[in-house]
Amino acid sequence: MAELSSGPVPYVYVCTRMRVRKSKLIPREDYVRILNMSLPEITRFIEETEYKKEIDELAPSFQGIDLVELALSWNLAKEYQEIQKITPGVLKRFTQSYLLRWDIQNVLTILRGKAQGMSAGKIREVLVPAGELDRVFLDRLLKEDSPVRIVEALKGHSIYQILSEGLDAALEEESFARIENELYKQFYANLLSEAMSGLRGGKQFLEYIMLDIDITNIRNMFRLRMDRLQEDARSMVVQGSTFSADEFQHLISIDDQKEFIDALKAKVRLKPLIAMLDMVESEKSLREIEIELIKVQLSQMESLSKLNPFSIHPILTYLEKKKYEIFNLRAIARGKEVELPVDRIRGYVVM
């Protein structure tokens, strides 16, 4: 076998592997069935899929929602780690950079969980050690008894400075939203820098990053409008794609929903996104809008992977679709656990 390091052969190999993995994801018609299952039935269903190993390994120690939550998190982390092992050369570097977002999510999950008085075990169930911070390090963070000690344990990591500078204000406000925004702004700035550094395949990586930034900014616009935020929000925009900070502020300041949608459509260039905005009505919930944005993003990523079949696109497309499979199964299981109506649970599922 050719060495999996660089050149066309390893690119073909890993991208073919991604297509095989993607073919094993749960199809839409199965979600319709799962939505009508009980929690024990859901557990049995996923045990017959790619989650069998995790379910079997954890079943002696966990049951019910705890078993499902932990099995899903373990499976996602394992899958992401295995993909990093088989991905060659610069594609590995891009993939690892993309997966650093899990360090942000995991640390914020720990900080928020601790602030809410959650047990270490419950927090651990939803952590996905797919970035630089492995399971052992995350367990170390879970043992710390204060947010200050958690942050200090991250000294030397890329997210430490923003966390340390913003922690006092976050604790005073009882919200980590500002820190989260700054961390993701830094994350995207680093991705843009890497994509534009001249590395082979950087152009395709940049296409994905700019799409992700646009979707993130548009989602934040809808959130801020729903919250009727009165203060200047220019510091919240993620720079690097369609919207400048001033344009972002102007758009969220438009009172009339139709006028806002028309102004937003005039700025974006992606036809599926424009079509999605055409369907947005004032009575749609924020969650419904966010689900539609996710669908547009996944659809566009699929198109990019078909245009560039041996690039970073098939890898990122699979990683994102796998992530949303986990989110879907978790949302359904949690909904069943608290006996939510099927129609309400369906509103949280990306199909």
Mean pLDDT score, rounded? 92
**Largest sheet report:** none
> Helical content, roughly?
over 70%
Encode the helix/strand succession as letters. HHHHHHHHHHHHHHHHHHH
**Unreliable spans:** 1-7
CATH topology of the largest domain: Topoisomerase I, Chain A, domain 4
Proportion of strand residues: under 5%
Write the layout of secondary structure elements.
Layout: H1 8-23, H2 28-34, H3 39-47, H4 52-58, H5 64-86, H6 89-99, H7 101-115, H8 120-124, H9 135-143, H10 147-152, H11 160-173, H12 177-195, H13 202-227, H14 245-252, H15 257-267, H16 271-279, H17 286-307, H18 312-337, H19 342-346
Structural summary, described in words:
- The chain has 351 residues and is mainly alpha-helical.
- The chain has helices at 8-23, 28-34, 39-47, 52-58, 64-86, 89-99, 101-115, 120-124, 135-143, 147-152, 160-173, 177-195, 202-227, 245-252, 257-267, 271-279, 286-307, 312-337, 342-346.
- The chain has 19 helices and no strands.
- It has 3 domains: 23-99 and 313-351, ATP synthase (C/AC39) subunit, domain 3 (Topoisomerase I, Chain A, domain 4, Orthogonal Bundle); 100-196, Up-down Bundle (V-type ATP synthase subunit C fold), CATH 1.20.1690; 202-310, Up-down Bundle (V-type ATP synthase subunit C fold), CATH 1.20.1690.
